[in-house]
Here is the input.
Amino acid sequence: MDKKDKDLSTTAAIENKAAAPTSRRSFLSKAIIAGVAVTATAGIAKKTSEVLLREDYQKAYLKDVLGGDSTLASRQYVLMSKQEKAELLKRLFQFHKNPEA
Here is the structure.
């Protein structure tokens, strides 16, 4: 082998050794960046879905209350007869002594 060939082969070996850790480092850095990007995207997606799917509790409460108020306003008070009261109490006591559920 000539001195030139030795120099070229030595230079090539040095370049290969120098390139190997760099490629590992670049792979690890790319993997870490990809992991951070996936995590950040998942976090943003979670926050966005929470904001979009969050229920407005005040609006739901008002809807429930107003619906109940209109139902109660449409009903009329009707007196029960003594016989109806007695039947109702009888059913209540029977259920209390021997519940069906």
The chain has one domain: 3-97. The mean pLDDT is 80. Residues 8 and 14 are 10 Å apart (CA to CA). The radius of gyration is 40 Å.
